[in-house]
Structure formats: C-alpha cells, structure tokens
Fold this sequence. Notes:
The protein is of the alpha/beta class and 389 residues long. The chain contains ten helices and 14 strands. Helix 7 runs parallel beside helix 10 (367-387).
Amino acid sequence: MKLVKKPEVKPLRPEFSSGPCAKRLGWDFGNVVKRAFLGRSHRASGSKYQIKKLIDLTKEILEIPESYKVGLVPASNTGAFEMAMWSLLGKLPVDIFAWENFGLAWANDIIQQLKIEDYRLIEEDYGLLPEITKLRDGCDICFTWNGTTSGVRVPNADWIPHNRDGLVLCDATSAVFGQKIDWKKLDAITFSWQKAMGGEAAHGMLVLSPKAIERLENYNPDRPLPKVFRLVKGGKLIEEIFSGETINTPSMLCIADALDSLEWLQSLGGINVAISRADANFKTLQCWLDEQDWIENLVGVGAHRSNTSVCLKIVDKDFLNLSNEKQRGFIKYFVALLESEDVAYDVSGHREAPPGLRIWCGVTIENKDLCDLLPWLKWAFESSKIALE
C-alpha cells in the first residue's frame, strides 16, 4: 500500500474527547480564577449568589419551564441520575430503555440494587435504537436521550404520551446544549458540565418537574438514602438545593468555570445557536464519512445519529478480518498516531463499545478544527495498516 501524504495543516485545538470535552475557543484560566470565590465558604453570600446565578442562567439558556426546579448536586451526571432513581423509583413498574453501557448501568441498578421486581428492559446493541414505542401505560420510564458511547439518540420525545401517570427519568448529559430537549415530556433530567459546556467534572445538574416533586413529597421509598441523595426533609422538597445552597461542598472554581461557559453560550445567542453549531459540525463529519470506503457512522439510521458524540466504525475488509483483540490493537495504534502528531486526543471509542472511533462535535468544537482533522484520519488509517501488516 502506498502511504498517503501526511497533511500539512493541523487543527488549532486537538481536543475532540467526548468527555471531558473541549473548552470554548478563547477560554482563559486566569479570568476564571479572578471571579472564583476561592478560600471562601460556599455558604457565603457571594458564593451563594454565584450558584444561584448559575442555576438561573442554566434554566434561561436551556428554556426549561418556569415550574421546573433546577439544582446543583454532587458526583457529576452519574450522581444526579442515581439520586433521581433512588429517590423516585419503586412506586410504579419501570420500563428501561438501553442501547449502550450507561443505559445498561442504570438498568443494573434498578434491577440489582433497587430490586424493583416489576420492570422491563428493552435494549438494543450499539448503533441501534430499541423499540421505544413499547412503553407500558402506568409505569415509570428510564432512558438516555443521547447514548454517548453508541452515538445513538432519540430523535424527539413524540413517543412519550402526554399526561402519563408515571414519571420519565432521562439521562441527557451529552444531549443538553446540543439537541432540542422536550422538557415538558420529562420529569427528572440530569446532565453534567464536562460535556457540551466544556466545563469541569464532579458536579451534576438535576432538573425536576412538578410531577416529580409531588412524587418526592408523597412517596417514601422502602430503602435507606445516603445524605447526598436526600432531596426531601419533613415531607417537603428541600428548596435550598434549587436556590443557591448545595447538599455538600461544591468547588467554587468549577462554579466560576461553569458560569464562564454559560455566559459564552448566552453571548452566542442561546440554545438554538448552540444546537446549530453542533449540527454544522456533525454535517461536516458525516459528509466526509459518506465519501469514504473504509469508515462510516456506527449508526445506520440517519434520524438516530447523534450530532454530539459521533461514533464511527471501520469497514475496511482487512480490518474486519482481524480478531476483536487485534482490532482493538489497531485502534490503539491509530489513535496514538493522531496524538503523537497533536491533531486529535482521546478519540477512541469507549472501552465497552465495538472497536472504533468517537469524535465530539458539540458546541465548543470549532468547525475549522474538525475540517482540518479529517485528512489526518485517512493518513492515520493508512499508516496504521502499513505498520501493522
């Protein structure tokens, strides 16, 4: 095989990781530090004002209904979704929709840890969306809006009926700020800053509908709840969590950084512009994929393809003839080449996913950087084939 010529132009920013994701263009650590309440109590007036401002700005930019509550909780999206499951589930049967490892992790907790007996797990393999219309009446629902490790998203929430008896719990961490969320169809929604916002990790956001709050105040699950999961005291929602106080001590440096991201998103023009940027990035990548004969989108149905965490599979016949172990070795070499050239960091698929690549196309990615990356993918592929022959 003749080696393709090494491209001359490199992306200005090689951060294409699907989490933590790239900072916005122009991000400056010094500016974040200047506004952070470092060495101060998170309960000081200035700190509480910043947390409240973050909550309010999140609600405004994402166009979350006024009647919904938005709170800052511990342990990233994982902590937020666990909090929702442990606090809300058990009153009704549960339908769980899963098509990648995080959805399956929530299913495992519901079945093995919460031990909810009346459940159904409707699942599909990586790259496929399960039959989401199979949901039962009178049950709670758990699903992931955008499967970060599979590149599969639900196209909308039309499959969820209005005025359902049950609650809808949604892990939306790689969809928020990149896809239009139908908040009124959802009751407990979680996400984290380190995805589309390009923020820091370890903090989660929890959004609750009035129906979810009613469940919290009128249903006592038959299980112990750790302190960091408790949202109710004396039968009433702890309002302070949604107005500037937190369950445990947050990082005020991370708070300041998240505010920086939110204010940038606001300056762009808000959620619709953020979605448009992600759409444009995805279109650039998908158009290039459509011209290749060795790589394609892992997701076959166009309407189900994520525009943020785009997962790719190699379809070259020589690659497909390799064992799974050798395919993973090939991918490891492939991404190491890209990293050694400082053109792309952390673009291998998730360890639980089929061997392949994953490229983040969210709002903080500049389209020119993505365009400059694409020739390097071809170069790295052909270089890897030669090196591993």
